Structure prediction request, 499 residues.
Amino acid sequence: MQVKKGLFLLLALAFVSCQLSLESPTLLRAFNQPASSDEVIRFSQRAASSSDVLSIETFGKSESGIPLVAIKASAPVHNNENPLRVLIFAQQHGNEQSGKEAALLLLSDLAKGKHHHWLENMELWIVPQLNPDGSDVNQRRNAGGIDLNRDHIVQLAPETRALHALFRREMHHVTIDIHEYQPFRESWEEFGAYKTFDVQLGVPTNPNVSTEIRSFALDQALPVVEEHLNSKGFSFNHYIVGPVPTQGRTRHSTVDFDDGRQSFAILGTIAFIYEGINGRDGFVENLERRTYGQYEALLAMLEFLHSNSKKATMISENARQQLIHQQPGDKVAIRLEHFPDGNPLLLPLSSARTGADTLVVVQNYHPLVKPTLEVIRPQAYLVPRNDSLLKDFLLLHNIKVTESFEIIDNPVTAYHIDEIKMSEDEELPNRFPEITPKQAERQNLTENYVYVTVSQLHSNFLVSLFEPQSMLGLAQRPGFEYLLEEGTIFPVLRVESRE
Ligand SMILES: [Zn+2]
Prediction:
């Protein structure tokens, strides 16, 4: 009898510890310390090995050599041949801990058998931590000093390169990039009120991103997440950036696509950015609530995507087909500005002194994005064969390049860079050259250049990057400044469509 009782106790203990091990390490210690990179990996492995819907892979390494893991959740046998593929990635910024914690809660749920109805028509990819080096010392940048969320074009960091390689392999239809914003800055304290939204949600804003994607994200997904968060007692806001309202304008994020939202959106992806509230210490303060805010926002989005999986798949795939079959001749925006829509923004804030709710009327509100300069989309760009940086860049992005080509009667334009002036857009300086278009020398084009058609997934990406006057151009980015030099011909030429 004694032996039986002991055995039972042992089994019960084993059962409990097995159950416990499927809880995230941070939850087990009551959120008094976020998960270390080592714990993220070990917990992800444990979750994956305990469930037949989960599998884990190492898709790269951080600057210091820590494995970057992705966990895939999919039904063992898919009812749906083309499931909606969703990529969630957290903690590009190491001092923003709650996204990773929410991703671990989600993994824990999936390992315990929750939310498996999602897998009827979705395949989830979860990257709980993109910047383990930064996270372990609670710093924004990676170990090489790179801000990963400004590195999605040039991709100097191994972390961003690995993420985009994973994306290119799987071609996810939806991406969710999880961050935190820092409300407790001195300027806001002096202003007298803070933003204390539990979660802000941002959507693509660059007009070169498909209209259907922008409208689906903003008009359909965003209200669903807002309603769910409110019902769970969390506050929500459509993501805004800007200084305190008396010191400058308020707008909805940036138009650039070097970040984890728009870099995917410009390739036909329904892309979101989550911005949960950070703690006053930027680390552990309020971590439990911060985590659950992000977690509930994820649950709401995934439930919404599950209910709208066919539509979301179609919107992304149509956008990609349009890019792949894009013809020359239409206009593409290369310089953009944010404009007011005539209405002030009513911004609910919290008093810095008492914490009481306070409504601030923001007059300097610029919610609209409009082009200020457009170019006609060419048929192709010609990129110098002897420029190894440009050729590596094309290779890195898997951009389609034709080595052997012939140009019979299409005009070819070369830009002379007359003078380089400075411009400030989105409160950041960039170079704005004055140019004179010329007919390019036609001999030896085939010998000296490779041909890069605009009829490809990267169509809008290419125009934005290869136009010398583009405020988002490659010439504005680290390592490619040499492309713009006064008194020279811009190295990339345009093949115009035939008249
Ligand atoms: Zn961030």
